[in-house]
Design goal:
InterPro entries: GntR_C, TF_FadR/GntR_C, Tscrpt_reg_HTH_GntR, WH-like_DNA-bd_sf, WH_DNA-bd_sf. Residues 8-76 form the HTH gntR-type domain. Keywords: DNA-binding, Transcription, Transcription regulation. GO terms for molecular function: DNA binding; DNA-binding transcription factor activity. Strand 1 (63-66) and strand 2 form a beta hairpin. This protein has a two-stranded antiparallel ribbon with strand order 1-2. By secondary structure, the protein is mostly helical. The chain is 68% helix and 3% strand. The chain has 11 helices and 2 strands; from the N terminus they run H-H-H-E-E-H-H-H-H-H-H-H-H. The protein starts with 10 loop residues before the first helix and ends with a helix. The chain has 2 domains: 7-73, Winged helix-like DNA-binding domain superfamily/Winged helix DNA-binding domain (Arc Repressor Mutant, subunit A, Orthogonal Bundle); 86-231, GntR ligand-binding domain-like (Four Helix Bundle (Hemerythrin (Met), subunit A), Up-down Bundle), CATH 1.20.120. Helix 1 crosses helix 3 (47-59), helix 5 (92-116) crosses helix 7 and helix 10 packs antiparallel against helix 11. The protein has helices at residues 11-23, 36-43, 47-59, 86-89, 92-116, 119-137, 143-155, 160-170, 174-186, 188-207, 210-230, and strands at 63-66, 70-73.
């Protein structure tokens, strides 16, 4: 029923095979999956590995324990959480694909922020922008403040899913962001460009111009990708 799993592959492979069987209808919503002992034998791995795989699927809402009865497939098991392989995401090609995705997200976030921002949001955005300069002036790379700046704009949309999606994508771009920030710190012209790009986004949001805000955000991420290539990340 299952393919034997090499010991070094461990729980991720087991979890994926279980998910595949659930999607194929082998284990329907509400049905009970085999015991740890049976799964351990079927996969050819230890019960500890099986337990880790099941724990992961519990956390993702795919499986649910029932006291004294076993582990069951939840009613919403077919709703799959979005996952990106961290090792794959660190490859140059994947990084630029993720930047393409972020460009689309950031543009829409800036547009919605221009429509929905409050005066309190504008103050927070101004403070977040100033924090980048302060962090760089103190000799840091500004990555933390840069991430906080973009998150503050996302908060101004009033849409929590924009915030979650941005945070999800950004976590895979931390290394690339650090490379570009370091490169920008060495190049005064790059540093000035980034500052001007950020200011353009903020100005459009302040004016309540969603089209200008989207264009400014889109151009900023496009330029970030260009600067990353110029830094030799390709």
């Amino acid at each position: 029923m299952f393919a034997k799993v090499p010991a070094n592959v461990l729980s991720d492979n087991v979890a994926q095979q279980l998910l595949d069987k659930i999607e194929a209808g082998v284990f329907a919503p509400g049905s009970k999956i085999p015991s740890e002992a049976l799964l351990s034998e079927a996969f050819g791995v230890s019960r500890t590995v099986v337990r880790e795989a099941i724990s992961r699927l519990k956390n993702e809402g795919v499986l649910q324990p029932q006291q004294g009865r076993g582990i069951f497939v939840t009613a919403h098991a077919s709703i799959r959480p979005l996952r990106i392989d961290a090792d794959e995401a660190s490859l140059p090609g994947s990084v630029f694909h993720l930047l393409d995705l972020r460009r689309a997200i950031e543009a829409e976030i800036a547009s919605e922020a221009a429509i929905n921002r409050s005066e309190t949001d504008l103050v927070a955005i101004d403070e977040a922008l100033a924090a980048i300069d302060e962090e760089v002036a103190d000799g840091h790379d500004g990555v933390r403040a840069d991430v906080a700046f973009h998150r503050t704009i996302a908060q101004a949309t009033g849409n929590p899913y924009f915030i979650r999606t941005l945070e999800f994508v950004s976590q895979y771009l931390e290394t690339a962001t650090r490379i570009t920030r370091t490169n920008e710190a060495r190049r005064e012209d790059f540093s000035r460009q980034v500052h001007e790009e950020h200011q353009a986004i903020v100005a459009a949001i302040r004016l309540g111009d969603p089209l200008a805000a989207a264009n400014a955000a889109r151009q900023h991420i496009y330029n970030a990708a260009r600067r990353l290539r110029q830094a030799g990340f390709a």
